[in-house]
């Protein structure tokens, strides 16, 4: 079975490492890259060509929603899973308009995140 190619984007290095450790424990998931800044995400996407991008709402240099909208416009096949500490209708609506496929609340449960990937 082919592994799912996943990229991680989070401004917090510890969060990125936690996600990396969790995802790499699953043999059906291949973490192909990580970034802390929106600019890094947009730079790496064409080279890495992930199938799924797991991205925190806040990156070092930008909010994630404009990044998600850009990715959705240029690479509509990439599934974006957005991680957020906030839960409100406005955020959900903005995320869906930006092309986000899933919105997960922090703290996320490992089993739930794996099942969505």
According to DSSP, the number of beta strands is 5
Amount of beta strand: 15-25%
Q: CATH topology, which one? A: Rossmann fold
What is the average per-residue confidence, as pLDDT, rounded to a whole number? 92
Shape designation: globular
Q: Which CATH architecture would you pick?
A: 3-Layer(aba) Sandwich
Q: Tell me the count of domains.
A: 1
Q: What value does the Rg take, in angstroms?
A: 13 Å
Report the total helices: 5
Distance between the termini: 15 Å
Helix content: 40-55%
Multimerization status: single chain
- Classified by CATH, the class is Alpha Beta
3D structure, described in words:
About 45% of the residues lie in helices and about 25% in strands. By secondary structure, the chain is of the alpha/beta class. It has one domain (about 5-115): Rossmann fold. Strand 3, helix 3 and strand 4 form a beta-alpha-beta unit. The mean pLDDT is about 90.
